[in-house]
Amino acid sequence: MAGKLPLAQLSSLRITKHQIPKHGGIPNTSIHNKPLTIYHGVFPSPDLTASHIESHLKAVEVCIPQWRYTMFDTTHFHSTTHELLVIASGHGRLLFGGEDNTGKVEEEVTKGDAILVPAGVGHRRLEVSPDFEMVGSYPAGSAHWDMCYGRRGETGVEERIRKLGWFEKDPIYDGEGPALSD
């Protein structure tokens, strides 16, 4: 399958958005106020594969796929780019915002879901099925993604996040979509 995939209709797509407060050295959504956005069942095909997702994202040209993997089990975030994660197989429970953050978010995700993670939002896996795999993508033209953990000595994090722009087109719908509305 090459090119764009059939998507859930925007009018019926279930979207979850979360503003997550800063916690320790993890900025979360406090700097730019763009929410963590989950597109539940955006790719409804039962035959969905990582290759199909990569093909769709390459055709849209907003976020470029860079890896296939699970999610790290240590809370981390990126200060140089936003991140789009699409679940290619399996299911799991993910944590956003930091373990001890009273504003943290735990989400159940499954094959066909997509997660738009703004720069600065801490994220990690809690538990996933053995077949859990995601496609990780970053905005076209963005700097290489970094790994931050909210530890002492990580300098310039907030400044780098402040300098990042936001999407002009939705990275999945190639035009209007959940990424463009708060």
From TrEMBL:
It comes from the Eukaryota. Residues 74-124 form the Cupin type-2 domain. Transmembrane segments: none annotated. Gene3D superfamilies: Jelly Rolls (2.60.120.10). InterPro entries: Cupin_2, RmlC-like_jellyroll, RmlC_Cupin_sf, UCP019307_cupin, YjiB-like. CDD domains: cupin_YjlB-like. This is Cupin type-2 domain-containing protein.
